[in-house]
Specification:
160 residues, alpha+beta, 5-stranded antiparallel β-sheet, 19% strand
Length: 160
C-alpha cells in the first residue's frame, strides 16, 4: 500500500511543473457578449454597430492593433451612448486605450461649444469609462439617466 501511495505521490509531483506551464494565464472574453452586457446597462438610444472604418478613421485606432471588436453607439445627435469592446493584438491595449482617450477628449472639445444645448451628453461623455483588462479595452459612455456605478458594475461583471 505504501508503494502505491508513494508512486501516486511521485506521479503527482512530476505533473505539478507541467500544470504551471499550461497556457499564459490570460483571460479570454467574447467581445460580443461583453458589449451586449455593458450596452444593456448603458441604454444606447438609436444604436448603430461599429465597423472597422469607424474605428480607424474616426476613433483613430490602428487596424493592426485590433484582433476583434464589438459595440454600438448612438446615432442621435447630442445624446450620449457608446459601448465598444476591443480585443487588442498582444501588448497593444495601452495604444488602444490612448487612442480612445484622445477620441473622447476630442469629442469633449468639440461639444464644449454645445454644452448649454446638450448638457447631459457632455457630462456623460466627460465621465466615460475606458477600462483595460489584459488585451481587452472597454469604452463606455452611458446614456441619459444612467448611473455610472451601474456601468462600472456591468463592466466588472462582464470581465470577471
Amino acid at each position: 500500500m505504501k508503494r502505491i501511495a508513494s508512486a501516486l505521490l511521485a506521479l503527482c509531483l512530476m505533473c505539478l511543473p507541467l500544470a504551471g506551464c499550461s497556457g499564459d494565464g490570460a483571460a479570454s472574453y467574447n467581445v460580443t457578449d461583453v458589449a451586449a452586457a455593458v450596452g444593456e446597462v448603458c441604454q444606447i438610444d438609436n444604436p448603430k454597430d461599429f465597423d472597422e472604418d469607424t474605428l480607424v478613421y474616426e476613433l483613430g485606432l490602428n487596424a493592426e492593433d485590433i484582433q476583434e471588436f464589438a459595440g454600438q453607439r448612438t446615432l442621435t445627435n447630442g445624446q450620449p451612448g457608446t459601448v465598444l469592446v476591443v480585443h487588442t493584438a498582444e501588448g497593444k491595449a495601452a495604444d488602444v486605450q490612448a487612442a480612445l482617450e484622445n477620441y473622447r477628449d476630442g469629442v469633449l472639445q468639440v461639444n464644449e461649444n454645445y454644452q448649454a444645448d446638450f448638457p447631459v451628453g457632455y457630462e456623460q461623455t466627460a465621465n466615460a469609462r475606458i477600462v483595460v483588462k489584459g488585451d481587452y479595452v472597454v469604452y463606455a459612455v452611458a446614456g441619459e439617466g444612467v448611473d455610472y456605478a451601474d456601468v462600472d458594475a456591468a463592466i466588472d461583471e462582464a470581465l470577471a
